[in-house]
Amino acid sequence: MKSRHCVLVAAPLRERTYPGKPMALDYLAAALNAIDWHVTIYDLDVSSERGLADTIRDNPPDLI
């Protein structure tokens, strides 16, 4: 069976109420990895929207 590819996008946070990063996408990625999905997490606090568009164009995922 072919592994599927998923891109999870963490939206930029305008305000942080605690130190650290949200972990929800990490937990979701772990669950998807367990059922043979290849997962890329794209954090818009760290990377640009243009970079996300390039990533999606260069390697179209099965799910965003």
Q: What's the helical proportion of residues? A: 25-40%
Lateral strand order in the biggest sheet? 1-2
Number of helices: 2
Residue-averaged pLDDT: 86
Verbal overview:
The mean pLDDT is 86. By secondary structure, the chain is an alpha+beta fold. Strands 1-2 form a two-stranded parallel sheet. The chain is built from two helices and two strands; from the N terminus they run E-H-E-H.
Architecture blueprint of SSEs:
Layout: E1 4-10, H1 24-34, E2 37-43, H2 49-58
Parallel strand pairs: 1-2
Distinctive features:
alpha+beta, single chain, two-stranded parallel ribbon, 64 residues
Give a quick precis of the structure.
Helix content is 33%, strand content 22%. It is of the alpha+beta class.
